Amino acid sequence: MSVTAAQGFEAAGVAVGLKSTGKPDVAVVVNRGPLKVGAAVFTSNRAKANPIMWSQRVIQDGVVEAIVLNSGGANCFTGSFGFQTTHQTAEKAGELLGVSAGDVLVCSTGLIGTGDEVFRAKVLAGTEQGIAELSADGGEAASLAIMTTDSRPKRSVVTGDGWTIGGMAKGAGMLAPGLATMLVVITTDAVLTAAQADAALRQATGRTFDRLDSDGCMSTNDQVTLMVSGASGVTPDLDAFASALAEVSQDLAKQLQGDAEGASHDITILVQNAASEEDAVEVGRSVARNNLFKAAIFGNDPNWGRVLAAIGTTQAAFDPYDVDVWMNGVRVCSQGGPDAPREDVDLTPRATDLVIDLKVGAASATILTNDLTHDYVHENSAYSS
Amino acid sequence: MSVTAAQGFEAAGVAVGLKSTGKPDVAVVVNRGPLKVGAAVFTSNRAKANPIMWSQRVIQDGVVEAIVLNSGGANCFTGSFGFQTTHQTAEKAGELLGVSAGDVLVCSTGLIGTGDEVFRAKVLAGTEQGIAELSADGGEAASLAIMTTDSRPKRSVVTGDGWTIGGMAKGAGMLAPGLATMLVVITTDAVLTAAQADAALRQATGRTFDRLDSDGCMSTNDQVTLMVSGASGVTPDLDAFASALAEVSQDLAKQLQGDAEGASHDITILVQNAASEEDAVEVGRSVARNNLFKAAIFGNDPNWGRVLAAIGTTQAAFDPYDVDVWMNGVRVCSQGGPDAPREDVDLTPRATDLVIDLKVGAASATILTNDLTHDYVHENSAYSS
């Protein structure tokens, strides 16, 4: 049900030919209220797509009526014509829905540098068709329409005490954290103010989507949006809501990891006993971005030396000669020297657990990443995306 | 001739079974003087191999009599036993050469975490055998003995006004800048003080080896060493010497790039009209480390959007919407929008030129990198290295 699991939302997904495959490529999600609260986080890439620049303005007042998302083209680096396309998309949706264009978010995903007249015409047609097909069970169709190289849709629902949170996500490449790292729409019928929604969203994304780093490449178009209808009439306990929102976010982040382009391993990097959470994140990310480590995992090779070579490039507080490293439960390195034999480690399962014990403090963080595979190279060399 | 091109040096390369292939794996280079001046730069990785820790002490007084290098094992994260192995290597060489062990540098390269009794015995045997086989034309043999996954040796010679600089290098993976990025030994018979040698070496490496970033992975064992015999009796013009040293360094760096593991393109990234050289380096490096861009080049796809997405993650001064990008002479992006058609770009040659014009200043920098290929993944997943 994804974005229509919570009360007060309608959605649709339609096909207008933006994708050469003819698959659905425009999604619309509308908030029927009574609240029209919204919050969003955006890529921190300075190279921002037109829909990001538009949506950053829209979100400022905390009011969101609807969101239009297209796959099949990023509308990034397409000049003022591209920005006008985004603007016209919001105006079209606003006109048809009887709301202000300034309360309509827009998201795009696909190849950078494409966004001509044909693209514009298709996005506008998709907006119109999507709004015509809105329904209270359109969440699944919407989740299909935002897919790009994804092999499957990503959906998640968590139910609280009288309220519900549901979400959808897309993303298989260029997965590295800015503020957000993909297109995600999460809806809830809980009663929240804009400030509460914003705080909850930033807290959830900071420890979920922001800690997914599949390939170290930050997108120009990423956006995570939370839409609040309040249709349940229930004002949630804020801690319970934050926890549920983090659960939906982490569920979607794990689905993104599990479907990352070409990956054969989902690697969970737990950095523990760090001096600070920031240190733990920096150490984890240095490993997540190390091609040699990632290629070794693809080859089922527990090459812990590459872990130490990666973390040695960071500024985090630890002694490289007093670090322990576990792979899938086997301590292969202790105090910066060899421990259990490499042969004891079974790396054949897709789920791969790496634990790095820095032994200097009590903080920890978990980074999700993937291995570097032939299929990753193939997908990202054989096709423009 | 590599390290024996300059007068006053002897070298050897021998095979003692550190490599399973039986190929040469221990090299020795000895300075016969009259000067015994040395300078070296080391990896900035905090995870440092035992020979790095040893050599950093040896170099402090600017006196170097000899250097022993082994392939077939990095002697990194092998504990105090490994450090003793390095120490014993220097002592063995010092004893046989009649010099202080404290003036003998040691370098190792190969798999991290290996350095047991067998390794020690072989390195000591290789040191002894290498010293027995020293000769004034041993430079070629030495350059073969330091190879790991290199497919060919790297050698360079430049002759100045009465003096000569010669060098050898090894390195095919884990090529990313620290201070140095590989094992390199450069010799000269010019007359230089230790301070002059150190200054010239730092200047040369800063703009050559430090700007080679093949795969973003910084080694634990990298060292670039300059040995000065003064045997020509000629005190060089320092600018001419610096220029010649930079020429040898860049020649070796390009040979390393040309032989990088699995690469099918040598990519030269020129960042021009930057506000500062630091900005130009930061921008160039962000592209050199972007897997999506590197995979696109492998696929002969001039995907300039990935260039902009990469540079947008930096803090350098520029407007992402006023940047021009050329690929192999074709301006594919101007002012942050599409320019010439992608089809106009021919990416089939191995040599690939990327120019990024930031349009904000007068500084520039060139970064060398490679593409991301199936063979890179294969070499780094199928074998421990």
Automatic annotation (TrEMBL), chains A, B:
Catalyses which reaction(s): N(2)-acetyl-L-ornithine + L-glutamate = N-acetyl-L-glutamate + L-ornithine; L-glutamate + acetyl-CoA = N-acetyl-L-glutamate + CoA + H(+)
Biological-process GO terms, alphabetical: L-arginine biosynthetic process; ornithine biosynthetic process
Record Pfam families: ArgJ
Localization: Cytoplasm
Residues flagged as site, Cleavage: 180-181
Gene3D superfamilies: ArgJ beta chain, C-terminal domain (3.10.20.340), L-amino peptidase D-ALA esterase/amidase (3.60.70.12)
Residues with site note (Involved in the stabilization of negative charge on the oxyanion by the formation of the oxyanion hole): 109-110
GO cellular component term, pick one: cytoplasm
Main location: cytoplasm
Presence of the UniProt keyword Cytoplasm in the record: yes
Keyword Ribosomal protein attached: no
Residues that coordinate or bind substrate: 148, 170, 181, 261, 380, 385
EC numbers for this chain: 2.3.1.35, 2.3.1.1
Quaternary structure annotation from Swiss-Prot or TrEMBL: Heterotetramer of two alpha and two beta chains.
HAMAP family documented for this protein: ArgJ
NCBIfam families: ArgJ, PRK05388.1
Protein family according to the UniProt entry: Belongs to the ArgJ family.
Protein name: Arginine biosynthesis bifunctional protein ArgJ
Native species: Microbacterium kyungheense
Organism taxonomic ancestry: Bacteria, Bacillati, Actinomycetota, Actinomycetes, Micrococcales
Underlying gene: argJ
